[in-house]
Amino acid sequence: MTMAGMATDLVTGAFGYTGSRIAERLIGAGREVVTLTRRAQTEHPLEGRVRRLAYAFDGASLRAALSGIDTVYVTYWMRFPRHGSATWPQIVANVASLAAAAREAGVRRLVYVSVANAGPATATAYFRAKAAAEEKVRGARSDRMSVAIVRPTLLYGPGDILINNMAWSLRRLPVFGIPGDGAYLVQPVLVDDLVEACLRLAGSDEHVETDVCGFDTMTFNEVVAIVRRSVAGRAIVRHMPVSVVLGTTRLLGVLVRDTVLTRDEITELMSSYLASKSTPQGNTPTHFSDWIDSHAATVGRRWSSELDRNFRGVGRG
User: Fold this and answer.
1) In this structure, what CATH number is given to the domain that contains residue 47?
2) Which residues on adjacent β-strands are paired with residue 314?
3) 114 contacts 133 by C-beta, under 8 angstroms
4) What is the pTM of this model?
5) Nearest CA to 213 among 268, 163, 154, 126?
6) Interatomic CA distance for residues 302 and 286, integer angstroms
């Protein structure tokens, strides 16, 4: 507790996509929010409302940072390694250090945002690393600190990467390429529904591991068709070999100065990793098509840059 008894929570990535939404809800509920960040001060709406702590994962620094914290929300991750950035083993080690320090500091609850279908034998490094981080978090449980592991499926919302940039492409490009047959499954889950689940689970002291999957399970073909119809996209949709999709997205990446899609991400998509094997629990009420239709005027109007959001202007770590 700080500030005359105000409950305090730590949200990693409080200026990021999911973390900022968690932080905003907590502040609105009268809680103080602190974060570990490498970012220079920005024009983010939460600037000045979230207390910054040093981006340091050594035990002493973390224990000091976590003193008096009630709940830790871990949204810290990366979409892919980039030259000069952390490696997957470093990211997993940082999560492990954070979880261990939270236990030692007497944190009551740790909520870890993972991904559906994370596993040690999955086909890509992202999903294997998420599984390794889950194991570190699981191992940090104690009589004093409980853990919730939350596994979302395909995350979307205002300014997201995949759905927003799909809409941008369908609006502007002559052709939109779907890798393979497009029959693989996805379950889009609204970021606000994920945040609601995280906050609800933070109030419990029971160990929980759960998928947070979207209300609708559909093929990738159906997702593209819904977005194209809603935004009145002009692109012709074609099924293409993976090599062709990778080649064309690399060319698009030069145009938008971003990494549009990676081979691993195509593998994850075509392996139906973005759909849960669990039955939806009724706690993610938003239908994907309803949300897209209600945001058709704005979705895809601007490109959402991964490199701008998470690499440019951010210190190495």
Assistant:
1) 3.40.50.720
2) 39
3) yes
4) 0.93
5) 154
6) 23
Residue 294: count of CB within 10 angstroms of its CB = 12
Looking at the fold, whether 203 and 63 belong to one and the same domain comes out as: yes
Question: 162: part of which helix (H) or strand (E)?
Answer: helix 162-172
Query: From the centroid of its chain, how far is CA 86?
Result: 17
Q: Which phi-psi region, left, alpha or beta, contains residue 177 (left: φ > 0; alpha: ψ -120 to 50)?
A: beta
Q: Are residues 163 and 74 in the same domain?
A: no
Query: Do 162 and 222 lie in a common domain?
Result: yes
Interatomic CA distance for residues 203 and 184, integer angstroms: 35
How does pLDDT run along the chain (317 residues), one tens digit per residue?
A: 444 457 999 999 899 999 999 999 999 999 999 999 877 777 789 999 999 988 889 888 898 899 999 999 999 899 998 766 789 999 999 999 999 999 999 999 999 999 999 999 999 999 999 999 999 999 999 999 999 999 999 999 999 999 999 999 999 999 999 999 999 999 999 999 999 999 999 999 999 999 999 889 999 999 999 999 999 999 999 999 999 999 999 999 999 999 999 999 999 999 999 999 887 666 788 999 999 999 999 999 999 999 988 776 554 32
Classify residue 167: in a domain, yes or no: yes
Query: CB burial class (10 A; 0-12, 13-18, 19+) of residue 121?
Result: exposed
CB-CB contact of 268 with 123 (8 Å): yes
Place of tokens 């977005």: 227
d(CA 116, CA 154): 9
- What span, in angstroms and rounded, lies between the C-alpha atoms of 52 and 54? 7
Pair of tokens at residue 253: 């990446």
Q: Is the Cα torsion angle 210, 215, 221, 223 positive or negative in sign?
A: negative
